[in-house]
């Protein structure tokens, strides 16, 4: 069924079918005292639903369930875990239309992008289903010959999984997939702006046959008060967090006391470098993908677009043409390519960063001011001659604003690209093989897109260095984050 034009009554039906309670020990239950909070549509500001607002006691109950379920789940056969993940993969794909609309309503991105995210999210389940079957070990002779080493891998134990609003489903499956594959139970806390997609995922996991207590979902408005006692309880063995670097640092400190295993997928400040030997059509298409995916609200978004001076004007004009041709509007409307930003704070930040860059001498080629009216819209914007000391060269823009900075030499641009505390992803566009490899190796980031504007792939190791994070998600390495290595020494 095509849900794009089902209108308000269809939306109401979809919303009425989506769970709004907490998922604890395999059952949906209200929060303590029946507390709820509103979830609203960023395209209109209107309330979509009210979901359970968990208290610290609710959080404790969720962790109780995860801890109780852990031993039996660790003992399940890898093929049983494979079956659950593949069942959930299939349900996600069967329900992609409903799930995409739900995501667009709560998060704002255009329907085509929501569909893309549901597919991406489902692929993590398909990928990690197979990984469950491949958990390996070893058997080795001691160098002196008098002993043997048996090397086994075991689930880490109950996990706390905290996810952001910008990819409401995929940031969840990227953690839940490997946790289930490894045999770990979890308490999942989605962002307060976008809990509905995660709650819909919880129902799918139950339908796919996930045992009670293995995944528990806690929605709340007081993340710190609910999660800190769980982190400090000593009963969880791992925290996997995706979100801002500022919150990640607070959580790392909390984890230190219990020496919790951590995975941290944090903020980015991606450089996007265009050399004068690049195919400019490809570079513009790459910049559009790297900048405009998710309205620019992505940790991987091109935040600083460095263009070699000889082609800077040509590139900027072409990019401005492509950006100004995009249709802005509510993500559920036909043909819309750019939806609203997530909330007033998100849009205000973009407005401030653009004003700051203009004050410092940047020129606006297209866009540059927010429209009046309901919804948190901001137009696709291209700024040129952005000085290196502009705030948007240092901070995540998290909006549809391309910030173009000219450069002259390779050494200069590599130094500028690396002059940031972040190190998630970099993009390089060049026609020269040697330069491509030289620059890709010199860039301080966990990932590099070489002549491509999107790096995310469930089968590849996603993650950053420096203040962009610790650990990797996806790829063959993704499941290792949820496994402990145990060595058993055997005398012979
Ligand atoms: P955020 O403010 O850091 O929030 C992320 C999550 O942490 C939310 O669920 C939030 O809950 C929760 N949280 C906030 N304070 C907490 C605390 N004291 N204790 C426990 N949990 C807490 O980030 P966001 O604005 O949602 O997401 C955008 C950020 O995520 C950007 O910086 C982006 O770069 C980053 N990101 C990184 C990746 C990656 O893979 N590296 C991917 C996507 C996004 P509430 O919603 O209730 O506040």
UniProtKB/TrEMBL annotation:
Pfam families according to UniProt: Aldedh
Residue stretches making up the Aldehyde dehydrogenase domain: 28-488
Molecular function as annotated in GO: succinate-semialdehyde dehydrogenase (NAD+) activity
UniProt keyword Oxidoreductase present: yes
SUPFAM superfamilies found in the cross-reference section: ALDH-like
Gene Ontology biological process terms in this record: gamma-aminobutyric acid catabolic process
Keywords: Oxidoreductase
Enzyme active site: 265
Oxidoreductase listed as a keyword: yes
Family: Belongs to the aldehyde dehydrogenase family.
Name of this chain's protein: NAD-dependent succinate-semialdehyde dehydrogenase
Organism lineage string: Bacteria, Bacillati, Actinomycetota, Actinomycetes, Micrococcales
């Amino acid at each position: 069924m095509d849900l794009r034009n089902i209108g308000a009554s269809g939306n109401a039906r979809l919303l009425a079918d989506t769970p709004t309670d907490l998922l604890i020990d395999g059952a949906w239950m209200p929060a303590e005292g029946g507390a709820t909070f509103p979830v609203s549509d960023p395209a209109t500001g209107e309330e979509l639903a009210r979901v359970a607002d968990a208290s610290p006691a609710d959080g404790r109950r969720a962790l109780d369930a995860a801890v109780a379920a852990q031993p039996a789940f660790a003992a399940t056969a890898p093929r049983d875990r494979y079956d659950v993940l593949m069942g959930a993969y299939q349900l996600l794909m069967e329900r992609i239309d409903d799930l995409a609309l739900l995501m667009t309503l709560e998060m704002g991105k255009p329907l085509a992008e929501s569909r893309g995210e549901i597919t991406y999210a489902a692929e993590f389940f398909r990928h990690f289903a197979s990984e469950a079957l491949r958990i390996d070990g070893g058997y080795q002779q001691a160098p002196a010959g008098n002993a043997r080493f048996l090397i086994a891998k075991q689930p880490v134990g109950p996990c706390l999984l905290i996810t952001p609003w910008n990819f409401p489903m995929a940031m969840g499956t990227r953690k839940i997939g490997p946790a289930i594959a490894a045999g770990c139970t979890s308490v999942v806390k989605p962002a307060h702006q976008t809990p509905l997609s995660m709650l819909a995922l919880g129902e799918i996991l139950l339908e796919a046959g996930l045992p009670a207590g293995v995944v528990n979902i806690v929605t709340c408005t007081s993340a710190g008060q609910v999660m800190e006692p769980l982190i400090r309880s000593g009963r969880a063995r791992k925290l996997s967090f995706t979100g801002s670097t500022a919150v990640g640092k607070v959580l790392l400190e909390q984890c230190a006391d219990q020496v919790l295993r951590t995975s941290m997928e944090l903020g980015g400040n991606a450089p996007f470098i265009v050399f004068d030997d690049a195919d400019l059509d490809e570079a513009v298409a790459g910049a559009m993908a790297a900048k405009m995916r998710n309205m620019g609200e992505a940790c991987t978004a091109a935040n600083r677009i460095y263009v070699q001076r000889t082609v800077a004007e040509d590139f900027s004009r072409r990019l401005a043409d492509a950006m100004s041709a995009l249709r802005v509007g509510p993500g559920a409307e036909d043909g819309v390519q750019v939806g609203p930003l997530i909330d007033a704070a998100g849009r205000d930040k973009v407005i401030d960063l653009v004003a700051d860059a203009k004050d410092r001498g940047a020129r606006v080629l297209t866009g540059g001011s927010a429209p009046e009216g309901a919804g948190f819209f901001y137009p696709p914007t291209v700024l040129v001659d952005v000085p290196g000391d502009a705030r948007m060269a240092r901070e995540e823009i998290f909006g549809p604003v391309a910030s173009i900075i000219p450069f002259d030499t390779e050494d200069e641009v590599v130094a500028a690209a690396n002059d940031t505390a972040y190190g998630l992803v970099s993009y390089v566009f060049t026609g020269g093989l040697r330069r491509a490899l030289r620059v890709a190796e010199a860039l301080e980031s966990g990932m590099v897109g070489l002549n491509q504007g999107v790096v995310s792939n469930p089968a590849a190791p996603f993650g950053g260095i420096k203040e962009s994070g610790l650990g990797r998600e996806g790829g063959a390495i993704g499941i290792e984050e949820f496994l402990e290595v145990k060595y058993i020494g055997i005398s012979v």
